[in-house]
Amino acid sequence: MPILKHAYRRYALSFVTVSMAICIGFAMQTSEAAVLAHDEVVEGSKPTSAIPLPQDLAAPQMLGTASLPSLPSDHGHGDNLLQEPVLLAVADDIPVGILPTEESPPRLGCTPVMSAEPAAGALIDVRLTAPCHAGDTVMFMHENLMFHMLLPQEGALKVLIPALAEAAEVRASFANGDTAQATTVVDSLAFYDRVVISWMGQGGAELHAREFGAAYGEAGHVWRGQPRDVGALAGGEGGFLVSLGNSDLSVAGQAEVYTFPTGISSQVGDVKVSVEAEVTEANCGKALKVQSRALRQGRVDDQHDLELQMPDCSAIGEFLVLKNLVEDLTIAQN
Fold first, then answer.
1. Which helix (H) or strand (E) holds 222?
2. Which is nearest to 306 in space by CA: 143, 197, 195?
3. Given a cut of 80, is residue 31 above it in pLDDT?
């Protein structure tokens, strides 16, 4: 019996050893086959069909699924086609191309600045500084008086405006909307009489004042060709005329203002005031609109509007007298 047991054990041990050897050999052959298959794929062969994923490992589908175009296999089997799912995603961010455009920052130091101070002859000394508007057209407004001027290349302008109110406000504006304004008090206005005419465009009206019986062309004839200046007021001898606006601009407001020192006049009598219009190439055959205003001792006395059809261009060089637009001034003894 001991001999049989010993033989049986040796037989069992040999069987186990052989079985393990066979298993190890099979595993090595399988591994080598897998390596060879991998090498063949790397060298360029492609699988003839896609290996399906288990259902629980398939990628989630977003917003539905779409398929790629069918791809034929490299083995010539037209009915073996590759298809893979395509994932669609939507971004929450707004595309850069439709973001709002950032506004340009305003240029520093470009805000127009204006000052106003009373001056001799009931004038307003207006000074405008607008360096970013050099060469631009500026429109001035005072009461219902409106005129345009060109700002010099230095970006600064000085203009004397006859006051039409004791509490005087002057406003300047540019085409882009920039504005400036200033106020002052002209308490000497009550000592003066004033006649104002204004119009739009080139070749407009002319204001004429003939003092105390003076004829056209004489020393007492005051107009744009002989305007005098504020020095004429000294001693109450006579008046002066101020022209406002740039006549070189095709469409612009212009004005003329005649001032007489009624409160300190050394003479008595009448000042004949008239408005005339020359027929020119710029205004022939066109409508001319003229506004007038008269101030007596600093207060508005009367005002009129007139629209006149100018003669055709065959009348160039002729003059029209616009009647009933302004009244004469009567200077009484103080």
1. strand 221-222
2. 197
3. no
Q: In angstroms, rounded to a whole number, what is the distance separating the alpha carbons of residues 173 and 168?
A: 17
Architecture label for domain 192-334 = Sandwich (2.60)
Q: Please, which residues have CB within 8 angstroms of residue 97's CB and are 6 or more apart in sequence?
A: none
CA distance to 97, 98, 102, 251, per residue, from 93 (Å) = 12, 11, 18, 52
Establish how many alpha carbons lie within 13 A of residue 76's alpha carbon, considering only the half-sphere containing its beta carbon. 0
> How far apart are alpha carbons 302 and 30 in whole angstroms?
120
Residue with tokens 């049989």: 4
Domain boundaries along the sequence of the chain? 108-189, 192-334
Q: 108-189 in CATH: which number?
A: 2.60.40.10
pTM of the prediction? 0.67
The residue among 213, 202, 322 whose CA lies nearest residue 270 is 213
Question: Which tops the pLDDT comparison, 73 or 157?
Answer: 157
Q: What is the DSSP letter of 164?
A: S
Helix (H) or strand (E) holding 3: helix 2-42
Nearest-angstrom CA–CA distance, 283 and 239: 29
Amino acid at 120: A
Q: Tell me, what's the pLDDT at 21?
A: 54
